[in-house]
């Protein structure tokens, strides 16, 4: 039969009904497998999206932990300066590549976030430098005048 096809001669179909039934079965199976493949592709896409979402959340959490290790009081405040698109993490998120470089850059721009002395900015002893003024009532002023103080 293959020899006949290669030579370009026509193949004689002895039972056209059986051939049509086989073709219809093949179409039906192909449709079933195509629908199954599409459903699996949809599920895979949904799982990949969910994985990316969890990975992003985990990356943010690990980044916050690393920032807190550096002594930053409010790590959430610093997160808005981190470009997560430039970070690369290993699958277990043991190491986040690119984070230290970004933190070093932020340290230059916002050193008060990393150094507690700068956070206070010299205001811890401000009370010693200026006396507190207490307003006195009219009665207190009169008493001081009469007593000579």
So what's the overall shape? rod-shaped
Provide the structure class: mainly alpha
Number of domains: 1
Seen as an oligomer or otherwise, the chain set is: single chain
What does this structure look like?
The chain is mainly α and 149 residues long. The protein has one domain (2-120). 64% of the residues lie in helices and 3% in strands. It contains seven helices and two strands; from the N terminus they run αααββαααα. A two-stranded antiparallel sheet has the order 1-2. Strand 1 and strand 2 (96-97) form a beta hairpin. The longest helix has 54 residues, at 16-69. The radius of gyration is 39 Å and the shape is rod-shaped. The protein starts with a helix and ends with a helix. The mean pLDDT is 79.
What attributes characterize this protein structure?
single chain; 149 residues; mainly alpha; 64% helix
Layout of strands and helices, then pairs:
Layout: H1 2-7, H2 16-69, H3 75-79, E1 88-89, E2 96-97, H4 99-109, H5 116-120, H6 126-129, H7 138-147
């Amino acid at each position: 039969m293959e020899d006949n096809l290669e030579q370009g001669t026509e193949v004689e179909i002895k039972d056209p009904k059986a051939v049509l039934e086989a073709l219809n079965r093949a179409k039906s199976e192909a449709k079933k497998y195509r629908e199954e493949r599409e459903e699996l592709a949809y599920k895979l896409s949904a799982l990949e999206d969910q994985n990316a979402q969890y990975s992003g959340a985990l990356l943010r959490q690990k980044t916050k932990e690393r920032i807190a290790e550096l002594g930053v009081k409010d790590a959430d405040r610093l997160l808005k300066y981190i470009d997560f698109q430039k970070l690369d993490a290993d699958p277990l998120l043991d190491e986040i590549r690119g984070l230290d470089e970004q933190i070093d850059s932020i340290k230059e721009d916002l050193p008060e976030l990393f150094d507690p002395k700068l956070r206070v900015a010299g205001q811890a002893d401000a009370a010693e430098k200026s006396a507190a003024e207490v307003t006195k009532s009219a009665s207190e002023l009169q008493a001081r005048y009469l007593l000579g103080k």
